[in-house]
From TrEMBL:
Coiled coil: none annotated. This is Mitochondrial cytochrome-like protein b2. The keyword Heme applies. Belongs to the cytochrome b5 family. It comes from the Eukaryota. The chain holds residues 103 to 485 of 498 of the full protein.
Length: 383
């Protein structure tokens, strides 16, 4: 039923393979997006609407794709994005993803809404390194959903620090969950099947702390999410967490500037994989906006981008435009669903090969040579 892993030669192949084997409920959880799906579609399509400006005859025999995130070197300028509830995707849950990551040396950001505990996930990294007898460069960072209860937030941050996570990615685009339509249909179906149709309508109210809880990951998170978070909270967070802080879900120039003013070390330009605000800007549009109106943040902050990157050449475009590194979400989730940790390795290999090919064809041998003038975004900007 499932194609041999060697037949997966692109990110899209993992989705096809996964769709064939995943329970419908899990596939809906992974693939769902906000409202009509426009934000998700925009993320993916925009990367293909800008072009390279390749240079030729530049001796591109040897290429180097290394990048570091907050001083932690990686063979790749991309990392695995945080995704909740991986237990719904593969029985091995987050540790299975971590195993694949460790074997390839790719960094990963672990979600607050994980199936396994922060300690279990960290332990799985150490154990895999031992098992492989390999000092993998993989490092784990932690994605932080601000809980309603401040004591709980402090406790969680201390736990994360003690476990050895190297940075806090605070998700700021989720004061409430977006309207994820296929999740809603699924929940309504479940309610109908047990004769709860009357009750289900009131749960569909959107907004505040009573936000609709979608079918899977959201159930873990909603009710714990705080819609009351403000920029002022960064003060006490900073007192409790002395490592790097990245704000995940920055979507305009004004907030990029505020992140810098509030002493953050990084920003992640993201619309949450199109799962939050309907018609939010694509990750690429945000990157282009910030390049134009807030160039001072490049060089002062580490700039990350995620959303819709499906090919190593998309990764290269983001780096040309000034990204430090990029996050890849669903392709890894589908690879995990279909092939477990081997899928994670394979997905990394596919992206790496696409990246090195694109670098050679663009005429560069190191990521330090990636420059904004190597990309032409006029088609996207003039539409
Ligand atoms: C996510 N994302 C996410 N983000 C976050 O901050 N915390 C989380 O728990 C989750 N959970 C989650 C689950 C699933 C199934 C998906 C698909 C996404 C968003 C994620 O970190 C990232 O921003 C996007 O997935 C990137 O877009 P692509 O690569 O999936 O297009």
């Amino acid at each position: 039923k499932i194609p041999h892993i060697s037949l997966c030669v692109s990110c899209l192949d993992f989705e096809k393979a996964a769709k064939a084997v995943m329970p419908r409920k899990s596939y809906i959880y992974a693939s769902t997006s906000a409202n009509t799906g426009a934000s998700l579609k925009g993320n993916i399509e925009d990367w293909e609407r800008i072009n390279f400006r390749p240079r030729v005859m530049r001796n591109v025999g040897d290429v180097n794709t290394q990048r570091s995130i907050f001083g932690h070197n990686s063979p790749y300028p991309f990392y695995i994005s945080p995704m909740g509830t991986l237990g719904a995707i593969h029985p091995g849950a987050e540790p299975e993803m971590v195993k694949g990551a460790v074997r390839k040396g790719i960094h990963m950001v672990v979600s607050t809404a994980s199936t396994k505990t922060t300690e279990q996930i960290m332990r799985s990294m150490v154990e895999e390194q031992k098992r492989m007898n390999y000092a993998s460069p993989t490092r784990l960072f932690f994605q932080f959903y601000m809980p309603v209860n401040r004591e709980r937030a402090v406790e969680l941050m201390h736990m994360v620090k003690k476990a050895g996570y190297k940075g806090l990615w605070i998700t700021v685009d989720t004061p409430v969950l977006g309207k994820r339509e296929s999740d809603r249909v699924l929940q309504a179906e479940e309610a109908l099947s047990v004769g709860l149709e009357k009750q289900s309508t009131s749960e569909w109210e959107v907004g505040g702390e009573n936000a609709f809880a979608p079918a899977m990951g959201g159930r873990v998170v909603s009710g714990q999410l705080s819609p009351h978070t403000t920029w002022g909270d960064l003060k006490w967070i900073r007192r409790e967490w002395d490592g790097p802080i990245v704000l995940k879900g920055i979507q305009c120039t004004e907030d990029a500037k505020l992140a810098l003013e509030h002493g953050c070390q990084g920003i992640l330009l993201s619309n949450h994989g199109g799962r939050q605000l309907h018609t939010a800007p694509s990750s690429l549009m945000t990157l282009l906006e910030i390049r134009t109106y807030c160039p001072e943040v490049f060089g002062k902050l580490e700039i990350f981008v995620d959303g819709g990157l499906r090919d190593g050449s998309d990764v290269l475009k983001a780096l040309c435009l000034g990204a430090t590194a990029v996050g890849v979400g669903r392709p890894y989730l589908y690879a995990l669903a279909a092939y477990g940790s081997q899928g994670v390795e394979r997905c990394t290999h596919v992206l790496y090969e696409e990246l090195t090919t694109a670098m050679r064809l663009l005429g560069i041998t190191s990521l330090n040579q990636a420059r904004p003038e190597m990309v032409n975004a006029s088609r996207l900007l003039n539409e």
